[in-house]
Specification:
This protein is α/β, with parallel strands linked by helices and 276 residues long. It folds into 2 domains: 207 residues, 2-enoyl-CoA Hydratase, Chain A, domain 1, CATH 3.90.226.10; 47 residues. It is built from 10 helices and 10 strands. It has a 6-stranded mixed beta sheet, with helices on both faces. Strands 4-6-8-9 form a 4-stranded mixed beta sheet. Helix 1 links the parallel strand 2 and strand 3. Helix 1 runs parallel beside helix 2.
Length: 276
């Protein structure tokens, strides 16, 4: 377990899988997000940034369901925007979004793979939180959506920018314009959900299986893959290819490269140490 204590998140280190589970622990609020919740999520992750025994992060809603299953039902509108910020002042609202964007961006740029394990609602800010993760595992009872339009607002935590890069312009506009929830099956068909399963034991087993695969992989390779795919894909192809070449060079200095090649030549499974 993590030594640092948090109000809104729980942290559990899974030793046999070399990964950490961070659970949003606001079940009475359907795991609704405040700026402090986002800060705690990032600070919980940051503890394991250079820990070679932690090679993957799983982000999920708490298993302690008091109302309905939820990854996160979105922003906690009752929590206010932040100290000194007033809702009727446009500059203040832009500053409030800037504060939240800071933590979404930090979570997205975390150097190790991050899995969003979604069981139940992933709406608004919760859907946007899944967007900054690398892989989405979802149960069939899960739903994704941007309901903000019904309140006269719109997805302001990266939803209008990141979702279109995942599912395309028409589908992203449909989600934002109409505020309709999309099933996990639909999001899987659209390529957003990577793995789909039933809730309960199947969900828990699948999380452990996929997180353990990453938890026993070569850390530097995962780091370079993540940076090349997520950020190299946002620039012209030639620049992205240079990004990839540089990453290949960085990765070549890792001990895990030697281990992987030797394991192949010796016809055995590699034992990666996770050193960066």
């Amino acid at each position: 377990m993590s030594e640092k204590k948090f109000n809104d998140v729980l942290v559990e280190k899974i030793e046999d899988g070399n990964y950490v589970v961070i659970s949003i622990n606001r079940p009475d609020k359907l795991n609704a997000l405040t700026t402090d919740t986002l800060r705690e999520i990032y600070e919980a992750m940051e503890q394991f940034e250079v820990d070679s025994n932690v090679r993957c992060i799983v982000l999920r809603g708490t298993k302690n369901i008091t109302k309905k299953a939820a990854f996160s039902a979105g922003a906690d509108l009752a929590a206010g925007m932040g100290k000194g910020l007033k809702p009727n002042i446009p500059v203040h609202m832009a500053m409030a979004m800037q504060q939240k964007h800071k933590y979404y961006d930090l979570i997205e740029s975390f150097p190790k793979p991050v899995i969003a394990a979604v069981d139940g609602y992933a709406f608004g800010g919760g859907c946007e939180l899944s967007l900054v993760c690398d892989i989405v595992i979802a149960t069939r009872r899960s739903f994704f959506g941007f309901p903000e339009i019904a309140r006269g607002i719109f997805p302001g935590n990266g939803g209008t920018q990141r979702m279109v890069r995942h599912i395309g312009l028409a589908r992203a506009l449909k989600m934002c314009y109409f505020g309709e929830r999309e099933s996990a099956e639909t999001m899987h068909d659209w390529g957003y959900v990577g793995f789909l399963c039933d809730d309960g034991d199947e969900f828990e087993s699948l999380i452990h299986e996929k997180a353990s695969v990453l938890g026993n992989s070569a850390t530097t390779s995962l780091f370079c893959i993540k940076k090349a795919v997520k950020f190299g894909s946002q620039v012209p192809l030639q620049i992205g290819n240079i990004f990839e070449m540089l990453g290949f060079g960085v990765n070549s200095g890792s001990k895990d490269v030697n281990e992987g090649i030797m394991a192949f030549l010796q016809k055995r499974d590699p034992k990666f140490t996770g050193g960066m």
